TrEMBL record:
The keyword Transferase does not apply. Residues 490-499 have a biased composition (Basic and acidic residues). Residues 1-40, 107-137, 475-517 are annotated as: Disordered. One of its GO terms (molecular function) is enzyme regulator activity. Belongs to the proteasome subunit S3 family. The keyword Plastid does not apply. This is 26S proteasome subunit Rpn3. Residues 108-118 have a biased composition (Polar residues). Residues 120-137 have a biased composition (Low complexity). Residues 266-445 form the PCI domain. PANTHER family: 26S PROTEASOME NON-ATPASE REGULATORY SUBUNIT 3, 26S PROTEASOME NON-ATPASE REGULATORY SUBUNIT 3/COP9 SIGNALOSOME COMPLEX SUBUNIT 3. It holds the Pfam family Rpn3_C. GO terms for cellular component: proteasome regulatory particle, lid subcomplex.
Length: 517
């Protein structure tokens, strides 16, 4: 054999080795993808098992935990995982219709599974470290509704809004036809995403009557979770169409709702704060907004906290107060609150011209946040701040100088504005109508007035309210009263046994004494 033949043979062997190595590398990638898919499928299967356990034990906390864990894995939902879950959990004959519906929704979705390739098999053997849990042949309605809800979530995330709307409609209709206590939590989540699909399609007002009917049904069934979600959905629906009066009537005429979730309570206070701010009730609006911020989660829900802080800043400026600087210096909110920081600076200075320039500069941002109308009201506060600074700086100043310093368009209105500021207690001065000037009075020591005690009383009320809310929000086991009664009964039984033992011991001592005598 020549050297040339030997080299060609070695080259061919090397090429074959490279092909084999390439196939092995591709197989390893497919294996990793299959393991990820199987692991995600096992997570959702375990959540389904936890839901069944919650139904058998009648424990809402287990149901809430299962939904929370499933939503945490929401980004891992794929078409193949949902198909595998439906084939595994809905394999019984009684669930064939539901299984066919879910597969129909998934077939309409145009999204592709990123974890699969065309050459990858449908099913694979699980790895030795993770074993697929055995599922019962016939599942509960709660598990079926859970799979339907996961399908709606997948369709919304895939931006298949039309198909998601159809799936949400079918889910809500099937849940309303059943009156099971254990379906309340899943039904509340289904109603939220039912309204969300219509909102994404820009047709939220079409389901207003359906939400009102659902609220009446939830009230009759004493479904607290459904009432919480539906009240917030209706308030959001009304406010999107600027129906403030209807939203206010809903809050006033709806019976007191027992909010079981802090997130729903935070939403309720935020919507209530928006309504109160539009109705010029700024003090109540500010208290509602600060309560919403306290109830909101600190590490998540950034968008909600930003929206609540924006509205709270505007309401505080309308109250004549200046927000603290640490509100704007929060790392997560610094960039979002920058336009409102600039607005606050101009209100604090009292420069009307600079205030107008700031509003014109960030007008698009304020309109997008739906705070532009409220910001237009702050102009009066800027004028009051400027008058207050002028009255403390000058003991006597003419109306023309005030108009020049505050950049008024019409100097003839200065006298009326100053008179209103004196009546509201903003400045302490006397108007000389003939001389057309104002004479400031001597400054009084603030500690000789009731202002310090009023501020102290306000802080004490806030602390007491926070304490009451914390006590009210404490959670106890559902059978806490029964357990306490059982403990007290056992304690009384033990005391009676001890008393009986002492009496028997005393009688034995008396008998021994009589025998000795």
């Amino acid at each position: 054999m020549t050297d040339k033949d030997t080299k060609s043979k070695q080259t061919s062997q090397k090429d074959d080795t490279d092909v084999v190595m390439g196939e092995k590398e591709e197989t390893e990638q497919e294996k990793i993808a299959r393991q990820k898919k199987e692991r995600s499928s096992i997570y959702f299967s375990k959540d389904a098992q936890l839901i069944q356990r919650a139904v058998h034990q009648q424990d809402d906390r287990l149901m809430n935990r299962a939904l929370r864990q499933a939503f945490a894995q929401r980004s891992k939902l794929t078409k193949s995982i949902l198909t595998q879950l439906s084939d595994t959990l809905l394999s019984h004959e009684s669930h064939k219709e539901s299984q066919a519906k879910l597969k129909e929704y998934l077939s309409k979705s145009a999204s592709s599974d990123q974890m699969e390739t065309d050459s990858q098999p449908e099913q694979s053997t699980p790895t030795p470290s993770t074993t697929t849990p055995q599922q019962p042949k016939q599942v509960l309605p709660e598990v079926e509704a859970f799979l339907h809800l996961l399908t709606v979530l997948f369709l919304i995330d895939s931006k298949q809004y039309q198909v998601a709307q159809q799936a949400a409609n079918d889910l809500v209709e099937s849940l309303q036809s059943q009156n099971r206590r254990t379906l309340n939590l899943i039904g509340a989540k289904a109603l939220f995403y039912y309204a969300r699909t219509y909102e994404l399609l820009g047709n939220a007002s079409a389901i207003r009557s359906n939400l009102l009917n659902a609220l009446r049904t939830s009230s009759l069934r004493h479904d607290h979770y459904g009432q919480n979600v539906l009240v917030n959905l209706l308030l959001r629906n009304y406010l999107q169409d600027n129906l403030v009066d209807q939203a206010s009537k809903l809050i006033n005429k709806t019976p007191t709702v027992d909010f079981r979730s802090n997130s729903q309570l935070a939403r309720f206070y935020y919507y209530k704060g928006r309504i109160k701010s539009i109705q010029l009730d700024y003090s109540d609006a500010y208290n509602c907004l600060m309560t919403a911020i306290r109830k909101a989660p600190t590490n998540s829900a950034k968008g909600f906290r930003v929206a609540a802080y924006k509205l709270a800043i505007i309401v505080q400026l309308l109250m004549g107060e200046i927000p603290e600087h640490n509100v704007f210096s929060q790392p997560q909110l610094r960039s979002a609150l920058k336009p409102y920081l600039e607005l606050t600076k101009q209100v604090r200075v009292g420069e009307l011209l600079k205030f107008k320039d700031t509003v014109d500069k960030y007008a698009d941002v304020y309109k997008a946040d739906k705070t532009f109308t409220l910001i237009q009201r702050i102009r009066q506060n800027v004028i009051r701040t400027g008058l207050k600074k002028i009255s403390t700086s000058y003991s006597r100043i003419s109306f023309s100088d005030i108009s020049q310093k505050l950049h008024f368009d019409n100097p003839d209105d200065v006298e009326l504005i100053v008179a209103k500021a004196i009546r509201d207690g903003i400045i302490d001065a006397i108007i000389d109508h003939q001389g057309k000037f104002i004479q400031s009075r001597e400054t009084v020591d603030v500690y000789s007035t009731t202002e310090p005690s009023d501020a102290f009383h306000k802080r004490i009320n806030l602390c007491l309210k926070t304490h009451d809310e914390a006590v009210r929000a404490m959670r106890f086991p559902p059978d806490a009263n029964k357990q306490k009664a059982q403990i007290q009964e056992a304690e009384e039984r033990r005391k009676r046994q001890e008393e009986l033992a002492e009496e028997l011991e005393r009688e034995d001592d008396d008998d021994d004494a009589e025998e000795e005598f």
